[in-house]
Design goal:
six-stranded parallel β-sheet, five-stranded mixed β-barrel, 16 helices, about 50% helix, elongated
């Protein structure tokens, strides 16, 4: 058996163990944690008019971002403005994000106009590239005064309500992030717009940067407020990862284009009308139903005038009724008038990127009127055609044998069932041709 260790030996062993623990703790403290080393700067591109597609893209990416992996999110923005509803959805997502978000108006030559100004004020950091501008935040349905002077007392109550609401909204965003609230209100009331250099002087933005890496260097160490708490940014050296809009965003952007939605609606309406007039064709009804459902989904996301949409649908239905009833143009002309007026009224707002092109309206009217004139011409030609009735209408006509026994049976011809006879037995399904008539019995032979 080994002798028990002496107290002196135990003390020496404890000292060595303590020294090793201290050294290990020091090494751990000196080595940067893997989590910090793995953090990234996520770049999201907001390019074009603010609409349902951009809002969906931003909200999905913010929800997917993990604070343990992302140090900052950069919104690289170039927009002329857009829809108020989509803008507010984006701002709500920005304010609720647990990750610091920086707006970067870039590249050079870009702008953050109208809705883009609100989004910039909502972000914890706002920055711009040289040669960019920001402002013109007046609600576009109203516009600024023609003279460009301050519209302190708009003409009507509804206008005052909208402008005051927008001014209060952007002031609250400016106060939340500690930026120039007075200029923000001026941008709403007078549509003021300024370049990047002046925006920095007025403390509308926090930095001017040439690109995203330069932005990360310049905002490193800035204090920001994120989800109700103060935080110091550590952005220098973050790995930059850009997430481009995916196919879902691109598809949503296409179908929410007013021109595409308008065309889909027309395809849907005319497809269903053609199916009703010619039951059993299937393809027009199927294509029309799909097109109409997609169009209604898109129109639900867009600011439309429902009276205008109703007139467009009424015009299409009236022209379809003209083709079916044959009123010699009375109903069809009314349909064309309703169609044109409704098309002009349908998208009344002047939101950038969400107008209905006059060329699309003109082409739709031309195509619709062309179809109407074609049907009307066929109607007039049919009225001038000599009516062929009785035996003359059946001689030479072809049909199909339905049932047959010996030399007698029944045939289907011109949508009617007739008794028939032939010199030779026929099988059901055989194509036959009428050569004579014996009273109410048709004399046929194989076609």
């Amino acid at each position: 058996m080994h002798p028990p260790p002496t107290p002196r030996a135990l003390g020496s062993w404890h000292c060595r163990a303590a020294t090793m623990l201290v050294a290990a703790a020091a090494m751990v403290a000196l080595v940067p944690p893997a989590e910090a080393a793995a953090k990234q700067a996520l770049v999201l591109d907001i390019d074009g008019a603010i609409g349902p597609a951009n809002a969906d893209y931003l909200v999905r990416e913010l929800r997917a971002a993990k604070p343990s992996e992302i140090g900052v999110i950069v919104l690289r923005m170039n927009t002329p403005g857009g829809l108020d509803t989509s803008m507010r959805i984006m701002i709500s997502a920005i304010l609720a994000s647990p990750i610091p978000i920086a707006t970067y108006v870039g590249p050079k030559g870009a702008r953050a106009a109208s809705a883009g100004t609100y989004i910039a004020y909502a972000c914890a950091i706002a920055a711009m590239a040289p040669g960019t501008n920001i402002g013109a935040a007046t609600p576009v349905q109203l516009g600024a005064s023609p003279s460009g002077q301050k519209s302190a007392a708009p003409a009507d109550t509804e206008t005052r309500k909208v402008i005051n609401d927008a001014a209060a909204y952007i002031r609250s965003l400016a106060d939340f992030n500690g930026r120039n609230a007075d200029w923000a209100v001026e941008a709403v009331r007078t549509a003021a717009s300024i370049p990047a250099s002046e925006a920095l002087k007025l403390h509308v933005i926090d930095a001017i940067a040439d690109d995203v890496p330069d932005l990360l260097r310049k905002i490193d160490g800035h204090g920001v407020k994120v989800a109700g708490r103060s935080e110091i940014l550590a952005t220098a050296g973050l790995q930059i990862v850009t997430v481009a809009p995916d196919w879902r965003t691109e598809l949503l952007a296409i179908i929410t284009d007013p021109n595409v939605a308008f065309i889909l609606m027309l395809v849907g309406v005319y497809g269903l009308i053609f199916e009703f007039l010619n039951p059993g064709t299937m393809a027009p009804g199927l294509i029309g139903t799909i097109s109409l459902v997609v169009a209604l989904y898109a129109l639900n996301l867009l600011p439309i005038n429902y009276a205008g949409a109703g007139l467009v649908l009424l015009g299409a239905v009236l022209m379809g009724a003209e083709a079916h009833i044959g009123a010699f143009g009375a109903i069809g002309i009314g349909g064309i008038v309703a169609f044109v007026i409704g098309s002009i009224m349908m998208f009344p707002s002047r939101v950038p990127g969400f107008e209905l092109s006059p060329w699309v309206i003109a082409e739709a009217v031309v195509v619709t009127a062309g179809l109407f004139l074609f049907v009307l011409g066929m109607l007039f030609r049919s009225r001038r055609r000599v009516v062929v009735a009785g035996m003359r209408a059946l001689l030479g006509a072809e049909g199909e044998a339905l049932s047959w026994q010996g030399q007698h049976g029944r045939i289907l011809i011109k949508g009617e069932t007739w008794r028939a006879r032939a010199t030779a037995p026929l099988r059901p399904g055989t194509r036959v041709k009428v050569i004579d008539r014996d009273g109410l019995v048709l004399v046929v032979e194989p076609a």
